[in-house]
Amino acid sequence: METKTRTLSETEALFADLDKPSLHALSYALRHPDTWPEAFVWNYAKCDHCAMGLAHQLWATIPSVNRTNGASFMARSFAIPFEDARSIFLGSEGQFAAAWLPKKRTGFWFRPGYVSDFQSVTPEMVADQIDKYLARAE
Description:
The chain has helices at about 10-15, 25-30, 50-60, 70-80, 80-90, 125-135; strands at about 105, 115. The chain is mainly alpha-helical.
């Protein structure tokens, strides 16, 4: 009697071991909404609905986060440097502002300014930052 071996699909291979957080799997999930938990809705402006919230829902070992503790938890969960986690997941505000985070103009013609435009951040933008980090880290 002949036994057939089945090869795992790309999605199955990435998510086969969901108890172990993976930046590769998170990047894939961000680009493929069909892999998201049913109740998850993307909104970068809210931590429970951004890449950190998705990671929390995909891996039980990642605690629920907010803008205060998010970079720290992501750095520990994915074993990456804090500043890289801050740039990837929060867009790093202030003096460490990431160039990838979209800005929008505020104020009047006599007093213009720019603020981070969280509403225009897409899951693919965050996935791009993860992929850039992974390429640098190899």
